[in-house]
Amino acid sequence: MSAAWAQVRDWRSSDLEGAAAKLRDIEDQLIDTGDGLSKVAPPSWSGTASDGAREQLDQLKELLEDRIAEVAAVRRGLLDASDGVVDVERAVKQAEQFAADNGLEITATNVQDVRGLTMCYATEHDEELARDARSLLVDECAAYVAEAVRRAGDVDQDLSQVLNGQVMSGALARYDYRSPDDAALRGENAGVADLYGQPAKDAKPAQNKAWWDSLTEAEKAEILKDHPDWINNRNGLPADVLDAANTALLPVYQEQVKDQLWSLKNELAGLGPDDEDRKKALEKAIGELEDKRDSLDTVDRLGKQDNTMILGLDISNQRAQAIISNGNPDTADHVGVFTPGLTSTVQDMDGYAEDMRKMRLGAERSLNRDPATAGEDAAMVTWLGYQAPQISAESLTDFDGDSVAMANSARTGGDSLAEFYQGINIKNDHADITALGHSYGSTTTGYALQHANTGVDRVAFFGSPGLGVDDVNDLKVPSGKVFYEEANWDGVGDLQRFGKDPSEMDGVVQLDTNEVQDAQEGKLSGITLHTSYLNEGTTSQHNLQSLVAGQEDRVVEGDHNVPLGEILRDGVTNPLGPGGEIGERLGEKIGEELVEVKDSAVDLAEAGAKKVAEGFSDVAAGAAEKSYEVRQGVGSIYEQLKRAAMGDPGGLR
What we know:
By secondary structure, the chain is an alpha/beta fold.
């Protein structure tokens, strides 16, 4: 931390206001003098003496107007600096108040935690999380301090630019002014400062919040109106502000994509028969733009629904990214954040958004049944703020990109998701936050929760190929607050592609997904396969919405699912045992589970063969070089099950 804090905390806007007032008096006197000079030589005076006198008067008038412009510039610079120091004073008070409220002390060089932990914890893991939470408070306070110092630096730089760049450099003396009033006006315009600026685009949530909190209401309104691009995708800013900024940018993005499509399609139409390479490149680019167009239309449609907020919108990557909330996460008592996985796209986000709307309503109904929580509300966020892997020949062999066989997208997405959690936590510190992750989205969620200070109170993974960890204590979530669902015949849950199978991990609470009878909701249906976890009226959805409501006592615990991978292993090694007993059903269930994957595999094989035939041998070479990864990951469900069924006990990992 800069030693400038000791200086900044003593800045007073009144000193600059007084100096500006004195300069105003001087400026008025100079203008009056300039007006008087124009009357010294009467119009009737002529001759040699008159010409000499007028020349001298013109020189004096020019010098005087230069000084008027300079004084006006400095006066305006001081006034703007005074306004800036008012913001600095407010930022200093915010930092000092935050420190006082949270048992912290701001010194000349850092922020210290003088309160520390005030209770004992059952496990070392929970104590570590508590220490992390205290360190987050230190970081938040340091962000307030840094914002005060940054604002002070901006004020100093802006005023220096006026004094050195406009006055001392002689820049204002190079103009030909029409009158003293014209000189004063131009000088004042030259002294205008940029009072608020913006943090770096990669600023942390606490830094973004400190910046926004330091602004006046007028400044916030001006930024929202003139610079919505400063706001969007900044974790830590108010949800209603993010929604307003993204809503304002949406038509801008739509027009931008429309223009780009028009340009590329025109170029494509003008290509000749010898431009095959360029044609393929344009067709690919057009396809991506059409997907972005459809994604923006989906966001536009969702954003107009009741209780819906657009918290994030980004079209700078290959595929659009968006974050949609049903309910306000800044004010809700309970916040759920759902991260979907493989093949998820923004243009097909409607279904997830509807699932989250139903889950919010279900959680609130459950809360209202309990007198202790009646009236509490929830918000459900669909977080697609990353490049979820897709199924295509190109993506499957892009081992350095977002292939589903690799953890690249999960790691990168996890970094962003962690900051999203942190942004909610610092804005709504009373909120009970539940993370939800499905399929590859569970892996992304797992990587996110390896970050400290997310504020997540519990997490539910479902249908997971791995959490990116083998030990539940590597997740920065309170002990006993990690839950897992695996449906019958969900082979993805047995892949262990990105870490140990969560159903076999110590410390993870296993949840039932079979049919049960609930005392309040009646019959709850069981689910099978990989894509039914969010279906309304199921035990799975009941469990998830109970966790979102913080009602952990209402979940149905139990590991009663039929683990496809384990059955295959057992059926191969012991045909007469439990696995063999369901042999008659096995082929049918595998067919149900794999029909879609098999069809996709056939399509991919055909697409791959076509690409090789067209000369894309590098794809085949890349696949060969990565044969181990492909064998263990890309062809995971279909190929591994096939090998296991044919008698290879290690066929399914």
